[in-house]
TrEMBL record:
<protein>
    <submittedName>
        <fullName>DNA-binding protein</fullName>
    </submittedName>
</protein>
<dbReference type="Pfam" id="PF10120">
    <property type="entry name" value="ThiN"/>
</dbReference>
<dbReference type="InterPro" id="IPR019293">
    <property type="entry name" value="ThiN"/>
</dbReference>
<dbReference type="Pfam" id="PF01381">
    <property type="entry name" value="HTH_3"/>
</dbReference>
<dbReference type="InterPro" id="IPR010982">
    <property type="entry name" value="Lambda_DNA-bd_dom_sf"/>
</dbReference>
<dbReference type="InterPro" id="IPR001387">
    <property type="entry name" value="Cro/C1-type_HTH"/>
</dbReference>
<keyword id="KW-0238">DNA-binding</keyword>
<dbReference type="GO" id="GO:0003677">
    <property type="term" value="F:DNA binding"/>
</dbReference>
<dbReference type="InterPro" id="IPR036409">
    <property type="entry name" value="Aldolase_II/adducin_N_sf"/>
</dbReference>
<feature type="domain" description="HTH cro/C1-type">
    <location>
        <begin position="26"/>
        <end position="48"/>
    </location>
</feature>
Length: 299
């Protein structure tokens, strides 16, 4: 009796780890770095590098495996992909390849011929799980934050209250479904400072703006607040953004909602301030990277 999990452990994982270790080494990571990223020993990395670990050519040459290994190597090497996200993506691919008639199912049937008589599917995990979706949002947010950190001059757009770049899951309903930077992004002696890794549920103000916009018809899943300036607003209009003013002295959800209901194509919201209220611009976008790119275009 042999379970499909044994195929995964004995053939799939050694093959993927070997491919991934090689790709990471090609991207300049040391043997020690690769061991740390993959959560394995340096001796194991050495064995993979010297071909001392048996791999499966059919798995190694599968286009989906090759594509995922390349994407994960890029993300892990750049720091845009976490180990948990890599684990989830590999797990999802495993479940896809375990489906009846697919690669791992074929290998399993070859190892246990009697299975060929049963058209059973071994898929047990949902590829669109909440955990996977959340990790994708965080990964996108990290990339957006890196764009801002590397954009010389972004500090000139950070308001006194600080900026926050946020992104939400597709079915977001409250701030726990929106990821942002704990403590916001600040200008510290002319340097863009992101105090901590992004998390869900840590942004209230900007999160409520994107949630209100979505509730009333906007397709936006990400947003950022920057300092208000008439020239900045003019630049955004020139770039083709639909802009609209709202009154932040009122309930923000209602004010933003009213604006979006009038025109759900609006991608820039602004308010010119009031007693104790700093004037701000809010840029909406389809994801964190596109929002960050818009900000970078203003510098």
């Amino acid at each position: 009796m042999q379970f499909v999990e044994e195929i995964v452990v004995d053939e799939f994982l050694p093959t993927v780890r070997s491919l991934l270790a090689g790709e990471l080494r090609e991207r300049g990571l040391t043997q020690s770095d690769v061991a740390d990223v993959l959560g394995i020993s340096q001796s194991a990395v050495s064995k993979y590098a010297h071909g001392d670990v048996a791999t499966n050519d059919r798995i190694a040459k599968d286009e989906r495996v090759e594509t995922l290994v390349g994407e994960l190597a890029d993300g892990l090497a750049a720091g845009d992909t976490t180990r948990i996200q890599a684990l989830i993506e590999i797990e999802v691919l495993i479940r896809e390849l375990e489906a009846g008639g697919d690669l791992l199912a074929q290998l399993h049937e070859e190892a246990v011929p009697d299975l060929a008589d049963h058209g059973s599917s071994f898929r047990i995990h949902d590829p669109e799980s909440e955990l996977r979706t959340g990790e994708r949002v965080l990964s996108s947010l990290r990339r957006g934050l890196r764009i801002l950190e590397n954009s010389s001059g972004f500090t000139s757009l950070i308001p006194a209250v600080g900026s926050n770049l946020v992104a939400c899951v597709p079915d977001a309903t409250d701030i726990d479904d929106v990821a942002g930077v704990p403590g916001r992004i600040f200008d510290v002696k002319g340097r863009t400072t992101v105090p901590a890794e992004p998390e869900f549920g840590v942004s209230e103000h900007v999160a409520n703006v994107v949630l209100a916009a979505r509730k009333h018809g906007s397709d936006a899943t990400a947003a950022i607040n920057i300092a208000y300036d008439s020239d900045t607003l003019a630049d955004l209009t020139e770039q083709g953004h639909a802009t609209a003013e709202f009154d932040e002295t009122d309930d923000i959800a209602s004010s933003v909602g009213a604006v979006i209901e009038d025109d759900d194509d609006v991608t820039v919201l602004y308010q010119t301030g009031g007693m104790g209220i700093e004037p701000l611009i809010y840029i909406l976008g389809s994801d964190a990277e596109s929002v960050a790119d818009t900000v970078r275009s203003l510098i």
